[in-house]
Amino acid sequence: MVPMNISTFFMGMSVCFSLILAIGAQNAFVLKQGLKQQFVFIVCLICALSDAVLITGGVFGFGKLISQFPLIITIAKYAGALFLIVYGARSFIAAYQSNQSLVAQGEDVGNLKQVIAMCLAFTWLNPHVYLDTVILLGTIASQVTDKLAFALGAILSSFIFFFSLGYGARVLQPLFAKPLSWKILDILIGIVMWGIAASLLLAN
Length: 204
Description:
It is built from nine helices and no strands. The chain is mainly alpha-helical. It starts with 5 loop residues before the first helix and ends with a helix.
């Protein structure tokens, strides 16, 4: 059995972490679910497992398939932009109407199916996911010999990031005991969503 290349493993971790660190639509959704303590585990798991599938596909050749069929990116671009516009509008409406404070721990305040659907949409309708996680990671991985070590490092990085974001949000609980904090968060999320949607629609 060939030993794993540790340096390549950590290379995969660092590259993946740098790609998912930026506050985007998916990360903002995970953060909000973490603050609400609503279906945190399933949301983090869906994001991490989705990344694992995309990373594996990118590292082991799926990136080449997508580059040959750019229609996949085009469909994700417009479907994702529409979804972000709608969700951003919902965030602005929530900021205007809502007077909520932080919900009590363990309280069932939403629909699991709806949360799962939105989580999947944030992941699979985001063309940046395909461009970054699949094509870019796949390109970098093509330059290393131990692709398995690279993929495992990237996947572990994704799991660590999403679960840290989801459960680490609890640190901010005292701040979000005030309704004003939720209004500000909803406004910021709305701006992020519409900003990303605009960047998708304006991109060549």
